[in-house]
UniProtKB/TrEMBL annotation:
It comes from the Bacteria. It catalyses: oxidized coenzyme F420-(gamma-L-Glu)(n) + a quinol + H(+) = reduced coenzyme F420-(gamma-L-Glu)(n) + a quinone. GO terms for cellular component: plasma membrane. CDD domains: Hr-like. Belongs to the F420H(2)-dependent quinone reductase family. Residues 138-265 form the Hemerythrin-like domain. Pfam families: F420H2_quin_red, Hemerythrin. InterPro entries: F420H2_quin_Rdtase, Hemerythrin-like, Split_barrel_FMN-bd. One of its GO terms (molecular function) is oxidoreductase activity. This is Nitroreductase family deazaflavin-dependent oxidoreductase.
Length: 284
């Protein structure tokens, strides 16, 4: 569906999430610095438009800025064609940007009144792709899967110790716990020190997502320290308590990993060779 007239327009080419075919959609845009912003209004429909669902599954897009009748190029980017990535803006920034667009084109305010869904605002960034296959999001999932396997093995150790499976298992349990917690801590340190700052610079709309992930990192660190403290004194360990703490930490980490993968995997798969993988420490 074409957006209202008298706007700066672009053609967004996305990849169908089911068909894999390329789809072109003409959209009004708002230029904001180096990024272009589009709005998933769907004319006030209760359903997100297909192009938005496509870019949520695969944010790699092609864009052509439309030249208006009479040869006048739309906006500051007039006539430009580029490849890039498209990602939703969230939180207060989304609200401010949508309000700006609604002030320019009141139809958008009416579209929002017509639907209960919050109309997404999507930022488009230029120049992240060079045609090569880079899958940094998939690498992130592999790191998470390794940590999931480590935690599963640690929980099995706790169950084995409670059954008195082998002499000296207490020391092995402590060593295994420290090893797993160190790997987890290094992974989060890499994200905090390298990946998250760069994501913030290049994708300002990710601020609410990264804020939540950082808060969850703090909670994970507290859980790790609590678990290690429980295992510090072999003579006084309450392994029922250890098992409960480990189960709770694992459940929270599973939720944390799932949220991070949902929010970042497709984007990280699209950002291209300027990025090195969001890597954790070497696997054992």
């Amino acid at each position: 569906m074409t957006e209202p007239g008298e706007s700066d327009l672009l053609v967004l080419v996305s990849t169908g999430r089911r068909s894999g075919r390329r789809h072109s959609t003409e959209l009004a845009y708002l230029a904001d610095g180096d990024r272009l912003l589009v709005f998933a209004s769907n004319a006030g429909s209760p359903r997100d438009p297909d192009w938005y669902r496509n870019v949520r599954a695969d944010p790699r897009v092609a864009v052509k800025v439309v030249v208006k009748a009479g040869g006048e190029a739309g906006g500051e980017a007039g006539g430009e064609t580029f490849d890039g990535v498209a990602f939703p803006v969230e939180g207060d920034e989304r609200d401010e940007l949508f309000a700006r667009q609604a002030a320019r084109h009141p139809a958008y305010a009416e579209y929002q009144r017509m639907t209960d869904r919050v109309i997404p605002v999507v930022e488009i960034h230029r120049g992240f792709l060079d045609g090569r296959a880079w899958a940094l999001g998939d690498e992130l999932v592999k790191i998470h899967d390794g940590l999931r396997a480590d935690l599963a093995a640690l929980r099995a150790d706790v169950r084995g110790f409670r059954r008195g499976a082998a002499p000296g298992l207490a020391d092995q349990l402590r060593e295994h716990c420290v090893s797993v917690c160190d790997v987890l801590g290094q992974h989060h340190d890499n994200e905090e020190g390298r990946a998250f700052p760069r994501l913030e610079r290049e994708f300002p709309g990710l601020a609410p997502v990264l804020g939540r992930l950082r808060r969850e990192h703090v909670a994970v660190t507290e859980n790790r320290r609590r678990l290690e403290k429980l295992l510090d004194d072999p003579a006084s360990r309450d392994l029922g308590h250890v098992g409960a703490e480990l189960d709770r930490m694992t459940a929270e980490l599973d939720a944390h990993f799932a949220y991070e993968e949902e929010q970042l995997r497709a984007l990280l798969n699209a950002v291209g060779p300027r990025w090195r993988p969001v890597s954790g420490p070497g696997r054992r």
